[in-house]
Amino acid sequence: MKGKLYALTVAALILFVVGPSTASSLDMPLEGITPGRMKQLFEDLAAFTDSAPPSVTRLVFTDTDMQARKHIKQLMTDAGLIIREDAMGNIFGRWQGSDPDAGVVLSGSHSDSIVLGGRYDGTVGVLGAISAIKALREAGFKPVKSIEAIMFSTEEASRFNIPCLGSRGITGHLDPSILDSYKDENGTSFAEAARAVGYAAASAQEFADKTHWKRTGLKIDAFVELHIEQGPHLEAEGFDIGIVEAIAAPSMIRVEFTGKGGHGGGMPMLQRNDPSMAAAELALTIEKAALGTGASETVATVGLWDQSPNIYNAIPRKVQLDIDIRDTVGERRDSVIQTAFDSAAEIAARRKCGFSTKTLFAYPPGTGDERILNAIENASNKLGLSSKRMISRGYHDAGLIAQIAPTAMIFIPCRDGLSHHPDEYASPEQIANGVKILALTLAQLAGSPSSEGKDEL
């Protein structure tokens, strides 16, 4: 008798922690989520591009982007969602729950792309959220909490050279001045481009104020972002689903070295103050600092090297380095940044070069919420799909939303881990698996009338 009572107690505790697998949240048909349907959705959206297939080029607020936005809003309407847009161009589609005062369960990603990118980065999360909600509606599910699909604006840095502007605006992690100061190749700022397509605000500050979650009344109970992995691990290890429990935080720093330059043949070696040699030394120092943390999550990339003059027989007068440093632990990443800045000063002094340093951005890491991670795990188990806990090395809007609300991500495999590339690919079957997992996760998080008064998670 004691053993039976103990078993019942343990079962009750498990139910409280991970939630009941009720018919309303896990046992429902999702007949609209088929590989064929997913294939058609992505083909339709990929048609909105400024480059030849299979690549996608869809920069924010261009004519092509505005056509894609219209298409996405039509999909939201077809799914029965109520659409609204904020001042910075984030698009929301709401399925009203039975308790309008409860927090919203939010899901989505972005639809803008890099130049000559692929058709799945971000769009899996946007089309996936709309499809998941539509499937739940068709299955007769009745949410207690409202569920919203979101298309974040300006996630890619491809036009204005700084990423995640839409989610930064929502969360308040935004210096409004960058909406005026960061410009595209034609000298157009975000604020100017947004106004030109109808997103109106009198100033950069007003754009930020009108988008902030406290101003719009957006109360997020949970956020889930479905995305391709953009890495090789799920495919190589044979897993169907990645359950993302941490998102590495990126930063971008700029270091500039200057020297007097000169003729490559005429200037003796001992009389040079060559900024390219200072830059080379710093690049190796940064590599050593990243490796020195002992953590595989710490990575550093000297990705841009702008040298002037840039000719084989002239000693440069100026070298600019743009450096990406990221980690799942903010303090550890910041220690590498500090090493870079301290080393730049020391190298410049020793080599008699001028120098300057600047942090262009340093985003916060995102931590997965255990309640949502458990819900994803429940859904994976229910559908018989293999899953693993993992981190995201790429950054996503979820990393910023995690600063204001419980958040997690769902990854699906992509072929060869390739992303930001015309050959980026996730199969219709893999996408359908991810959307089904998302649908069941949203159902658990939103609750249903049959589970009111219970701990759904």
From TrEMBL:
Residues 1-23 form the signal peptide. Keywords: Hydrolase, Manganese, Metal-binding, Purine metabolism, Signal. CDD domains: M20_bAS (cd03884). Homodimer. It comes from the Eukaryota. The keyword ATP-binding does not apply. Residues 254-346 form the Peptidase M20 dimerisation domain. Its cofactor is Mn(2+). It holds the Pfam family Peptidase_M20. This is Ureidoglycolate amidohydrolase. GO terms for molecular function: hydrolase activity, acting on carbon-nitrogen (but not peptide) bonds, in linear amidines; metal ion binding; ureidoglycolate hydrolase activity. GO terms for biological process: purine nucleobase metabolic process; ureide catabolic process. GO terms for cellular component: endoplasmic reticulum. It comes from Klebsormidium nitens. The lineage of its organism: Eukaryota, Viridiplantae, Streptophyta, Klebsormidiophyceae, Klebsormidiales.
